[in-house]
């Protein structure tokens, strides 16, 4: 897992702008789309001109109206899939399945339509003279594997050392929701959560650990039922000081 | 790939209607000129559309081959449509003078909810009372695989497994219990993480005799 040299908090990755595929190898992949246009997004933005990791401050590009507009073509695509699999889309159990599956998939990717500042963090950053570790652990997480479009689920443990500012606790879980409800890769998800907290609070350090089960490995492919994938991102003093890191890891295990 | 399900179970034949469609439909049989790779590319194109409509950038590195991978994954998840119990059971039925309960439990099961196309998974516990014929034990697990690798409803899945064993072995009784977690309930909708759905089918002695049924349940569900 790559570690970025992020010693300066509070800045977005502007220093990496211009070099593509650094760090996580992609930005969120979100490209602004003209409303009502099913055409491909401006292709010029792909490749090297794409900004690396979008700042958490950027607005998402999907809206609730977008969802409604795109639902019929999503449903049509699911009908094609059902036929391609050899099923009969007209049988009773499958009649409304394309619509249900399309709505479900939009729900599983609703992280694309949520805005961190407006929806999540706005009012919940408080000045507090606390500089001991704050941990929120066992946050249930559900995501979608971007390679197979199959669920990933697991738990997220977050710890941070405040630097005069603390965050409402549920907001940590909401940050997890925003980034996990997308087409994801577990490594990237871990990093995005850590960076978002860093940029919002400028804490002394942040640690994020995710343990998850990937259905793409359990239901197909190698078919290993009990395997779990664990990824972690340690920033700031969690990375530099082994004792802090140790305390965090011990506390999330207990 | 005929889906065979022609006996009546306990006088109920309304089940047959559901079963007939839980397999290749007539329309699909008519268009046999559609080769498998053709179907795969249709599904692949559909996934490309889906990715685009969700607002993602289909040209980014991580998503470049996702439509193909997702299409193949979906075909794997529905491979049960192409398999029949005849194929796997035929050679593994043995004459044995055994009439005590045979249980195979904790069979991992993965299926797809036919309403949301989202996985559900859990364990199946199967028991039967042989009537002069026993079956190779792994065949019970293979029967679970055949019926679970389809677009399913848990109730129907349980029944199909029970009736397949019933037809093949003509035992004195069959019992099937499935405990599963439905991602459509966990990841969306009500979002109840710990909820688990249990369905069971009891045929023959398991249905008529409460003591037999209790013995089965004690040996499987009650840990």
Automatic annotation (TrEMBL), chain A:
It is found in: Cytoplasm; Nucleus. It holds the Pfam family GTP_cyclohydroI. GO terms for biological process: tetrahydrobiopterin biosynthetic process. Pathway: Cofactor biosynthesis; 7,8-dihydroneopterin triphosphate biosynthesis; 7,8-dihydroneopterin triphosphate from GTP: step 1/1. Its EC number is 3.5.4.16. Keywords: Allosteric enzyme, Cytoplasm, GTP-binding, Hydrolase, Metal-binding, Nucleotide-binding, Nucleus, Tetrahydrobiopterin biosynthesis, Zinc. It comes from the Eukaryota. It catalyses: GTP + H2O = 7,8-dihydroneopterin 3'-triphosphate + formate + H(+). Residues 1-67 are annotated as: Disordered. Residues 76-253 form the GTP cyclohydrolase I domain. PROSITE patterns: GTP_CYCLOHYDROL_1_1, GTP_CYCLOHYDROL_1_2. GO terms for cellular component: cytoplasm; nucleus. Residues 1-11 have a biased composition (Polar residues). GO terms for molecular function: GTP binding; GTP cyclohydrolase I activity; metal ion binding. Residues 55-67 have a biased composition (Basic and acidic residues). It is an enzyme of class 3 (hydrolase). InterPro entries: GTP-CH-I_C/QueF, GTP-CH-I_N, GTP_CycHdrlase_I, GTP_CycHdrlase_I_CS, GTP_CycHdrlase_I_dom. PANTHER family: GTP CYCLOHYDROLASE 1, GTP CYCLOHYDROLASE I. Belongs to the GTP cyclohydrolase I family. This is GTP cyclohydrolase 1.
From TrEMBL, chain B:
Gene3D superfamilies: 1.10.286.10, 3.30.1130.10. One of its GO terms (biological process) is tetrahydrobiopterin biosynthetic process. PROSITE patterns: GTP_CYCLOHYDROL_1_1 (PS00859), GTP_CYCLOHYDROL_1_2 (PS00860). The keyword GTP-binding applies. Its EC number is 3.5.4.16. Coiled coil: none annotated. One of its GO terms (molecular function) is GTP cyclohydrolase I activity. It catalyses: GTP + H2O = 7,8-dihydroneopterin 3'-triphosphate + formate + H(+). Pathway: Cofactor biosynthesis; 7,8-dihydroneopterin triphosphate biosynthesis; 7,8-dihydroneopterin triphosphate from GTP: step 1/1. InterPro entries: GTP-CH-I_C/QueF, GTP-CH-I_N, GTP_CycHdrlase_I, GTP_CycHdrlase_I_CS, GTP_CycHdrlase_I_dom. Residues 43-219 form the GTP cyclohydrolase I domain. Keywords: GTP-binding, Hydrolase, Nucleotide-binding, Tetrahydrobiopterin biosynthesis. It is an enzyme of class 3 (hydrolase). CDD domains: GTP_cyclohydro1. NCBIfam families: folE, PRK09347.1-2, PRK09347.1-3. Belongs to the GTP cyclohydrolase I family. This is GTP cyclohydrolase 1. It comes from Pagothenia borchgrevinki (Bald rockcod).
């Amino acid at each position: 897992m790559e570690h970025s040299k992020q010693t300066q908090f509070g800045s977005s990755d502007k220093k990496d702008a211009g070099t593509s595929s650094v760090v996580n190898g992609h930005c969120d992949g979100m490209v602004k789309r003209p409303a009502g246009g099913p055409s491909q997004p401006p292709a010029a933005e792909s490749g090297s001109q794409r900004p690396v990791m979008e700042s958490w401050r950027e607005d998402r590009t999907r809206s609730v109206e977008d969802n409604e507009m795109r639902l019929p073509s999503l449903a049509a695509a699911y009908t094609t899939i059902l036929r391609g699999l050899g099923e009969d889309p007209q049988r009773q159990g499958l009649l409304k399945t394309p619509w249900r599956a399309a709505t479900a998939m939009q729900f599983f990717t609703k992280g694309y339509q949520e805005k961190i500042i407006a929806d999540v963090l706005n009012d919940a950053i408080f000045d507090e003279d606390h500089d001991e570790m704050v941990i929120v652990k066992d946050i249930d997480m559900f995501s979608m594997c971007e390679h197979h479009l199959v669920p990933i689920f697991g738990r997220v443990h977050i710890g941070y050392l405040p630097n005069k500012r603390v965050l409402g606790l549920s907001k940590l879980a909401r940050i997890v929701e925003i980034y996990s409800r997308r087409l994801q890769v577990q490594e990237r998800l871990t990093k995005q959560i850590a960076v978002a907290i860093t940029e919002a609070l400028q804490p002394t350090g942040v640690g994020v650990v995710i343990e998850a089960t990937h259905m793409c490995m359990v239901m197909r492919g190698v078919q290993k039922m009990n395997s779990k994938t664990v990824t972690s991102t340690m920033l700031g003093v969690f990375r530099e000081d082994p004792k802090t890191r140790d305390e965090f890891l011990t506390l999330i295990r207990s | 790939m005929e889906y065979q399900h022609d006996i009546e179970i306990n006088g109920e034949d309304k089940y047959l209607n559901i079963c007939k469609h839980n397999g290749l439909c007539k329309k699909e049989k008519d268009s046999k000129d559609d080769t498998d790779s053709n179907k795969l590319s249709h599904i692949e194109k559909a996934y490309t559309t889906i990715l685009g409509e969700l607002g993602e950038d289909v040209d980014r590195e991580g998503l470049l081959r996702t439509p193909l991978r997702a299409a193949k994954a979906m075909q794997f998840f529905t491979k049960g449509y192409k398999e029949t119990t005849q194929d796997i059971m035929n050679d593994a039925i043995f004459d044995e003078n055994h009439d005590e309960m045979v249980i195979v439990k904790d069979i991992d099961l993965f299926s797809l909810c036919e309403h949301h196309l989202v996985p559900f998974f859990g364990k199946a516990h199967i028991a039967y009372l042989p009537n002069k014929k026993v079956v190779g034990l792994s065949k019970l697990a293979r029967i679970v695989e055949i019926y679970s690798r389809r677009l399913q409803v848990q109730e129907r899945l349980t029944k199909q497994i029970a009736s397949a064993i019933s037809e093949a072995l003509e035992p004195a009784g069959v019992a099937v219990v499935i405990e599963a977690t439905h991602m459509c309930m966990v990841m969306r909708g009500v979002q109840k993480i710990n909820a688990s759905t249990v369905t069971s089918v009891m045929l023959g002695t398991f249905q008529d005799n409460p003591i037999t049924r209790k013995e089965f349940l004690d040996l499987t569900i009650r840990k």
